[in-house]
């Protein structure tokens, strides 16, 4: 069930990345954030209820709320025109938690692929903190490209592979995932540097 939610997280991250690049109006992105945010809160709640006290199942579901709350928060901020600093500082919490979940994936679950994926999410949410919490607008374009480029390989692709029973996670695939993530972040930096005079539209910007 969690892989169904992950599939749509890929969609909302893509849209949010395009909003950061000024390609999608923030109010237009709000609806999808609310839809996916609600889904990412309902799914872990159902999984925890079904877990019937199984600590491992509860742990696996617990991280989904980090993203459900993020998207609900983003949707509300975009619609209401609220200042984005709150979501920025919440993103710092999400980034720190994602590092912990990455460690759990690597060292407890023996799942290096999702360890890399969690680290990729930690990077994205750390960038959200810098842009919206600390007001580092110069990073907005890089953040937008990083979100766009990482959205599909960290969400949509593993979701489809897991749903079809094709997802593998071993040392080799973990290294491949890490190499791909590094290459995509580097590409985001190159793309962001190409138009330094471009003024992006922040996905959480307060509208007048």
TrEMBL record:
CDD domains: UreI_AmiS_like_2. It comes from Saccharothrix tamanrassetensis. GO terms for cellular component: plasma membrane. Belongs to the AmiS/UreI family. It is a multi-pass membrane protein. Pfam families: AmiS_UreI (PF02293). Keywords: Cell membrane, Membrane, Transmembrane, Transmembrane helix, Transport. It is found in: Cell membrane. The chain crosses the membrane at residues 6-24, 31-51, 57-80, 87-107, 113-135, 142-163, 175-193. This is Transporter. The keyword Cell membrane applies.
């Amino acid at each position: 069930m969690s892989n169904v939610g992950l599939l749509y997280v890929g969609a909302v991250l893509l849209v949010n990345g395009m909003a950061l690049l000024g390609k999608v109006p923030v109010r237009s992105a709000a609806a999808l954030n609310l839809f996916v945010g609600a889904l990412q809160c309902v799914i872990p709640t159902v999984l925890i209820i079904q877990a019937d006290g199984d600590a491992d199942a509860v742990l696996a579901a617990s991280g989904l709320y980090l993203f459900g709350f993020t998207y609900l928060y983003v949707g509300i901020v975009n619609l209401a025109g609220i200042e984005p600093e709150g979501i920025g500082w919440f993103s710092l919490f999400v980034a720190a938690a994602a590092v912990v979940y990455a460690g759990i994936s690597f060292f407890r679950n023996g799942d290096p692929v999702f360890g890399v994926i969690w680290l990729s999410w930690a990077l994205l949410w750390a960038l959200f903190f810098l842009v919206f919490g600390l007001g580092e607008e110069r990073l907005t374009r890089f953040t937008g490209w990083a979100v766009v480029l990482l959205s599909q390989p960290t969400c949509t692709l593993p979701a489809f592979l897991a749903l079809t029973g094709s997802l593998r996670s071993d040392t080799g695939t973990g290294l491949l995932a890490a190499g791909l993530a590094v290459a995509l972040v580097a590409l985001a930096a190159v793309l962001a540097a190409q138009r330094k005079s471009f003024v992006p539209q922040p996905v959480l910007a307060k509208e007048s």
